[in-house]
Every structure is written in C-alpha cells, then in structure tokens.
C-alpha cells in the first residue's frame, strides 16, 4: 500500500478547526445539536462547522503537512527532489464543511458511548508553499468521538477520516515546478483515490477560540494519506479495459508495434503503436504504476538499458527508467510474486542459466531473490498461477527438443516439475494469460516459419484444446 504520513501541529499553526457561530459571523448562524447527557454531563453543543485551521486563523499555514514517512509515491518524491523541495513543503487545506440539517440518524448517530458525525460540503486542496497542485470536492469528513466516562472530559478519544478523494490538477496557472510536481503526483495516483485517516489529538492538543462571532476549538491531527487503487488491475494484458486478454505485436524487421484487441481467442481490432528501433525489445506487459492500464517493459539488447512505457489504453503517456543490467540478462516475465500488489520482474541469464526476481515497489527495485539455475537450453516462457494455489509458477520450454514443463512454486522455491506435451521446435511459446475467461492460465503459441498462431487452452496444468488465431506476415512476433 502506498501512503504518506502527515501531522497538523499547533506549533506549526496547523490542525483542524470546529466551531459554532453567533450573529455577525461569516457563516450562517448555527450551533450543533446538544450532546446527550448520557455521553457528557457538561451540557455541550456539537460543533456545527469544520475546516482546516487556516480557514479561521489567518496566521495558519494550513491543516496538515506531509512528513518523510512514506511508501510509494515515487514520481512525486522524484519531482519534489528535482525542483529542490521535500514532502514537508506540501500542505493540505480542507474548506468549510458542516453538519447540514444536523438530523440524528442522518448527519450524526450514537452507538454506545460513541458519537459519529458526518461533515459535508467541503473542498480539499494540496499545496506547494501556497501554490495549489491538486484540488477537488471533499467527500464526507466522518468524525468519531468516543466519550468514555461522561463525567471526564479529558478521556475523550477523537478520530476522523475522509475516503475516496479524487484529486484534479489545479496547477495550470502555477509555476513550472508546481505543474511538474502536480503531474507527477497524479501519475502516482492514477485511477486510484486518496483516503485520509486522522487522529484528532485530545485533550491536551485542543485549544478553544472565540472572536465574538465564532466559538470553537482547534485540534492537532496526525495520520496518513493512503492511496486506494480500487479493484486490482487485470493480471494479464488488457489494453482497452474490456476484461479480455489482448496480444502485443512487434515487427522484428521494421520496429513497428501494435496490439490485437481480442474477443476471447480471436482478434477484434488492430491498433498501431509508435515504432521503436530494433535494438529495443518489449519483454513484459503489466501495470507497473497501478493506474489500471497495461504498461510496456522495454529492454535494450545492445546496452542492457531498461524502461517502461506508461500507457493509457493504447497510448504511451510517459516513461520511467529501470536499473540497467548486463546484456546477458533478459526480462522473462513481469508478475506479482510476493502478493504485495506490486509488479515484480523475473530475469533469466541465458549465458549462465541464472534466474532472479526483482521485488519491486512501483518502479523501484526493493529487493531481489535468486532462483535455482537451469541449463541454458531451457527458456522461461511465462509466469502465472497454473495450479490455483495463489503462488506464481514458471513455464519452461526447451526450444531444441520441444519439451515443455512447469515449475510449481511455493513462494520462490520450486516444489514440483510438471511435464507438458512436447511441441515441435518450429513453434515458440509467447507468453501466458487467461484468454477464455475460465480462470485457468492458457499459453500463446507462434510459428515464425509459417506465421501461424494459436492458444493452448488449459485446465490447470493440462492442455485441453488448441484455438487457432489468424496467421500473420513474416517478421511479426506476438507476446502476452
């Protein structure tokens, strides 16, 4: 999970403000409902309005600011560093929200000794030293108050959350740095949403205020902003988001590229992609930045340089570099090996027979795991969960003999080798995916001599059918 921790401390002039209003206030005159005596014997009125402290305090710098405690958001941190900023330069402001009609059971309710309030109507913005980067309507700000002892004001425990905030770029009129940082941040967010979890510190960090028109309190806040990607991206290439596995094509003579948008095992449409010089090869297809789109992993056969095209559908919209490797190494597949919802990279050294997995956090290599060596006459044809145990398995092919087999893995340890039927050497395995939507992994085949293509439809580890696809002209090579 990607997150950034934050604080909203009074020493920094930050935090949350809640208040009621009297005559002459900027907001309509309102006081919240009376807190039941069963929860508090002090005869309190709930605070009707809520915002970040800067809304009522002109000396405040905002509601909260980010800290260096984070996971993910690689593009944001890189952009901040490139322009000489840090996470502490980012603040979050949330605008005026209220209890609305203040109706029990709708805008607030009580369960036991806990009251929950729903503040609505606010806005939320993330700023870089006063320049707005992103903003949007703030979803419901839910505040939960555990009163504990009704006669002891000092043991109240307060927390809050804002879920499913979808930021929009608001940096069009800001500086070049702010625009670049906003774009980087939105690249990290992708199709996801942001959740804010607050701990409103009580009682020591509560300070009451009043100016004759407003009566309320400031609260310090600590917590995390986390990135929720929603439903996981498809584990197999799906360029148009229709739930069907698609096939990428590269012409090894011209450098042209394209995609078959599939309907099951048959192509429905061809979409051309930009051409790329022949020293580059696409060696993986997966959603590395978790924005819901299949990205293209490129490897330079001459230099060992690696990079990823970040895609929106069939359109490249950005790129990121990966670590360089020696030219003996090639990407065998890209798949989540350790179950952290991050795409990892399986490497094979065809000169030595060595195999390795890069465990990734976004586009950053966090760790690596070596796998057993395998003689160099065997090639990795793909990696996926063939036997339904939620562990990634590895498909092998001996191109010289036509032998095929599966490593069934437990984590990173092969526990069994399952032989598959032999196939003549003129056929090449070009990847694995579920083409017919039955939940089993299938195998894509290509015959470079004839241009024939087809798909082994599997049940578990057993091929049960072969679905032919249209032939292609010489030079075109598919992959999934």
Could you explain the architecture of this structure?
By secondary structure, the chain is mostly beta strands. Helices cover 5% and strands 50% of the residues. The chain is built from two helices and 35 strands. It has helices spanning 74-82, 176-189, and strands spanning 2-8, 16-21, 49-52, 64-71, 90-94, 97-98, 108-111, 114-119, 123-128, 131-137, 141-146, 157-165, 168-169, 193-210, 214-228, 247-251, 257-263, 266-273, 280-286, 295-300, 306-312, 315-322, 329-335, 344-349, 355-361, 364-371, 378-384, 393-398, 404-410, 413-420, 427-433, 442-447, 452-459, 462-469, 476-479. The strands form six sheets. It has a 15-stranded antiparallel β-sheet that branches. Strands 18-17-16-35 form a four-stranded antiparallel β-sheet, with no helix packed on it. It has a four-stranded antiparallel β-sheet with strand order 19-20-21-22, with no helix packed on it. Strand 20 (295-300) and strand 21 form a beta hairpin. Helix 1 packs antiparallel against helix 2. The longest helix has 14 residues, at 176-189. It is elongated and about 85 Å long. The relative contact order is 0.09. The model has no long low-confidence stretch (mean pLDDT 93).
């Amino acid at each position: 999970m990607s997150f950034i921790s934050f604080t909203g401390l009074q020493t920094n002039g930050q935090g949350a403000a809640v208040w009621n209003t009297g005559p002459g206030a900027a907001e309509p005159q309102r006081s919240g409902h009376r807190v039941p005596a069963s929860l508090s014997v002090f005869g309190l009125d709930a605070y009707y309005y809520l915002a970040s402290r800067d809304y009522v305090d002109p000396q405040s710098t905002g509601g909260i600011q980010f800290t260096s405690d984070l996971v993910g958001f690689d593009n944001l941190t890189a952009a901040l560093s490139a322009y000489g900023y840090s996470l502490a330069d980012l603040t979050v402001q949330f605008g005026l929200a209220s209890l609305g009609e203040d109706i029990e059971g709708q805008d607030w309710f009580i369960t036991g000794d806990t009251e929950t309030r729903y503040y609505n109507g606010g806005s939320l913005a993330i700023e870089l030293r006063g320049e707005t980067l992103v903003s949007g309507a703030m979803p419901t700000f839910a505040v939960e108050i555990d009163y504990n002892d009704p006669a002891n004001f000092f043991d109240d425990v307060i927390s809050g959350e804002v879920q499913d905030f979808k930021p929009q770029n608001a940096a069009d009129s800001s500086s070049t740095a702010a625009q670049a940082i906003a774009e980087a941040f939105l690249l990290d967010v992708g199709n996801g949403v942001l959740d804010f979890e607050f701990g409103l510190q009580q009682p020591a960090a509560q300070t009451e205020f009043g100016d004759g028109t407003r009566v309320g309190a400031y609260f310090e806040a600590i917590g995390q902003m986390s990135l929720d990607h929603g439903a996981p991206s498809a584990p197999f290439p799906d360029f148009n988001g229709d739930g069907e596995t698609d096939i990428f094509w590269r012409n090894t003579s011209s450098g042209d590229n394209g995609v078959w948008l599939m309907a099951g095992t048959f192509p429905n449409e061809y979409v051309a992609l930009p051409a790329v010089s022949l020293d580059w090869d696409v060696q993986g297809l997966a959603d590395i930045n978790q924005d819901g789109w299949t990205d293209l992993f490129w490897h330079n056969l001459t230099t060992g340089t690696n990079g990823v095209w970040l895609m929106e559908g069939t359109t490249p919209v950005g790129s990121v570099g990966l670590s360089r490797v020696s030219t003996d190494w090639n990407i065998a597949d890209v798949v989540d090996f350790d179950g952290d919802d991050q795409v990892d990279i399986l490497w094979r050294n065809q000169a030595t027979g060595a195999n390795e997995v890069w465990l990734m956090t976004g586009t950053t290599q966090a760790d690596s795991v070596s796998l057993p060596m395998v003689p160099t006459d065997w090639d990795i044809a793909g990696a996926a969960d063939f036997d339904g145990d939620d562990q990634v398995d590895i498909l092998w092919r001996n191109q010289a003999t036509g032998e095929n087999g599966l490593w069934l893995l437990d984590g990173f340890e092969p526990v069994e080798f399952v032989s598959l039927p032999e196939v003549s050497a003129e056929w090449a395995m070009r990847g694995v995916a579920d083409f017919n939507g039955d939940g089993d992994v299938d195998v894509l085949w290509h015959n470079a001599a004839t241009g024939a293509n087809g798909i082994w439809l599997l049940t578990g580890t057993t091929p049960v059918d072969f679905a032919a696809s249209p032939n292609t002209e010489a030079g075109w090579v598919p992959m999934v």
